[in-house]
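Quick question: what would this complex look like in 3D?
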Amino acid sequence: MGQFIVRRTLYAIATLFILSLTIFLVVRLTGDPVTLLAEPGAQEEDLAVIRKDWGLDRPLPVQYAAFVKNVLTGELGQSFNYEMPVSTLYFQRLPNSLELALAATLISFLIGIPTGIISAVRVNSVWDHVGKTVALLGLSVPGFWLGLVMILIFSVWLGWLPTSGQGGWRNLIMPAVALGWYFAASLLRLTRSSMLEVLRSEYIKLARLKGLPAFAVIAVHAFKNALIPVLTLAGINLVIMLNAAVIIEVIFAWPGIGRLLYEGIFQRDFPLVQGIVMEAGVMIVVINLLVDILYAYIDPRIRLTR
Amino acid sequence: MTPLLEVSGLRTHFTSFGGTRIVKAVDGISFTLNEGETLGLIGESGCGKTTTCLSIVGLLPTAARIAGGRITFGGQELTEKTSREMRRIRGRSIAMILQDPMASLNPLFSIYRQVAEPAYYHQAMRGRTLRRRVQDLLAAVRIPSPAQRMRDYPHQMSGGMRQRIVGAIALAGGPKLIIADEPTTNLDVTIQAQYLDLLKDIQRDTGVAIIFVTHNLGIVARMCDRMAVMYAGKIVEHGSVRNLFNGARHPYTRALLGSITRLGSKEPLYAIPGQPPNLARLPSGCAFHPRCPDAVPRCSTEEPPEEGFDDGWTVSCWRAAAEPARKEYDRTSA
């Protein structure tokens, strides 16, 4: 088990290195941030001063080294726009995003997993068709459109829910549904196909041959096996919702990380964008590592053979 | 004596393409099985052996249904049972051993848990009694140090051990009938022999009846009292193993017996020409006639009726009575 964790950690470090290089180069393709930092009509000399202040005049390898150093100290550099450490900005916004992401995850679980199981157990029945329709809508209706329609119905026409901002649970419902919608559909599809595969297996046939109640066959023997791929997806979904709920957070004026990223991209705030992407990368890597360890806990084969 | 199991005129059909096409996987078969007896069910792949077994245990796939006939087990009519009643019978009186020992145990549960389940659900055993029971079952299938091994997971065991675990699960409810669907196909030859001996011993100790599904005639000779030869969803010949091996009447049975390898034999191995028929488009008359070396014109137009002989021997073939067993297919050392 120890060796397994060490190896996974080494993979994780390599992944993060490649990510840091990619994001560093990609943000520099978006244009010159100095033109946005300076006042309109600023002279070329003024721009050069700003450029020097932020260290943007240095060669790229030097800038990259500085970025890596900032990541390693955990500070992630100073935001051009806010003139504050990116990590401070990030952790200010994190609780808001976490609140939204957890609510959306809960919604995606409540819709996706039971519907997926019913679809698989009653394959080609009416329930399966309902499930398939939900999945199709979930994957094809964009979350922002759903968000706008919900605002129109529940806020504008019915006046039940506030249109935007953060506050009590009433503010949370619409953004959480709009965000969780797509993920519910993807969980549903994965749960369904995973369950279908397991239900066809010989060990499920043997469980039926033992004369076990249907509940024990499906909920115990089949579900535990079908859960493994679903867990990975759920872990990655959570990270995506946390860090990249850009459009939903903008529509509902939710003060989370997604909106911070949106501002960073518009302002060409290199350290901010780099910092948020790195945080998301670290989270994905850590969640994957946790999911792998959780697998080992569920599946004895992984526990002992690695 | 009333037989333990009596299958009469069983027909199991698969419906596909929204009911437009019917495949008669099992088409009117009848046989009986007494307590403590072993019946071999033989035939090529796709001839309806497994469908027959699944019809008996009531676990047909959703596309299949029993279209006619009766299955009487211990005085009860199984085709009229609800799924709840069948579930109770499956855990206790009828057990089935599946083909693939590598795939038939759940990888995520310990051996203890999987062997304990029938006793837990059907006999409401708990705690120490249950542990004792599992150890006894594992000992009965000759798992060494059962108290330790029952904590293991399936992947920690060899194929032969796993198949013995499956055997222990089959024994858990104290069954009267075990259906063994090619239980040794995926095992090494030496392990096969051990497993067959084990089944024989269990049968001697418990008096359980066994239906042995196989296409290995050597196993039939070794294990079975009687054998039923299936072709295209029908039983074409049925009788005692001794009689059939000494002089089968049906050309198909003779062809099967002729395709056994024998040590020291210089004769070329007999191969049945052609392919097993597509069950959705069966030939007219006797389904075997296109491949039959003895076919006469009548075989392609009229289906042969079942003809009875002494000793419960039945054959469905127009040429059966006219043609005694040919010497080159004969195998006396059954």
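Answer marked as accepted. Chain B touches chain A at residues 57, 59, 87-92, 95-96, 98-100, 103-110, 117-118, 121-122, 153, 155-156, 166, 169, 172-173 (CB under 8 Å).
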